[in-house]
Amino acid sequence: MTAHNRGASVPHFLIAQSELPQEREARRRRAGKSSGETYAATLAQMRPGVATTIVSPTDDDTPTFTAERLARFDAVFLTGSPMHVYDDGPEVRRQLEFMCRVFASGTPSFGSCAGLQIAVAAAGGRVRKMPERMEAGIARRISATEAGRTHPLLAGRPPSWDAAALHGDEVLELPAGATLLASNAVTQVQAAEIRHDGGVFWGVQYHPELALREIAIAIAAQADELLEAGLADSQDDVEARARDIDALHDAPDRRALHWRLGVDGEFAEERLRRREIANFLASLPDLRTD
Q1: Does residue 123 sit in helix, strand or coil?
Q2: Predicted TM-score (pTM) of this structure
Q3: 59 and 176 share a domain?
């Protein structure tokens, strides 16, 4: 699929997935979709009829997307992935160069988890491995900063909320031109806006695009890491948590699961979980900088 002129009746979104080929295939075997395919499915549900193109900037055989070509899209979405943006290598460099061109194109962009970290690093901020901790399954008590309380990205969020999350890296330092929008006790940067080189990026450290079943599959697959981080005492604990989150996917109103997981509708209900993506889509007419 090729880019069309923005402003047409059907919006066209570019989805950049930073997984390596073997990681994409492993995710497809576990969850049925790559991270980019998950984003495409979510956007298609939220905006029926939308056109999407998935690209993998980390791959050495991916054609270069110039700033001029990127400007033809209505928005760019950056997915999560196992990528560590502080590891210098050709895959990371290609991804960061791609994001620099996104900023230069003026096309509004949105990213979750590693997508936020990529935008931070491309704009001059710093990302690190979280020291002796990680956030897995549920990011608890995320709260908006003073700037975040009136920012359209978080419109409709209560003063504190839980979100689907799975990450062992975090933003250490936001770049110049960034605004911190939300934090929690685990990591300072849970949501941010970045303005850089003529472009605007909105991002979150959590995963509004993921179905709860995908979160359940992901934490089950990373049981060893959760045990090493001290988040669970046994494999059985991880499997029990994964089962509860998977069950909540099918029964988001089930009060027993809300009680057992310690969540409310902000986490359980798909429409509320996707709030940041919905807010970004609604704000697109105001975000174009050219």
Answers
A1: coil
A2: 0.94
A3: yes
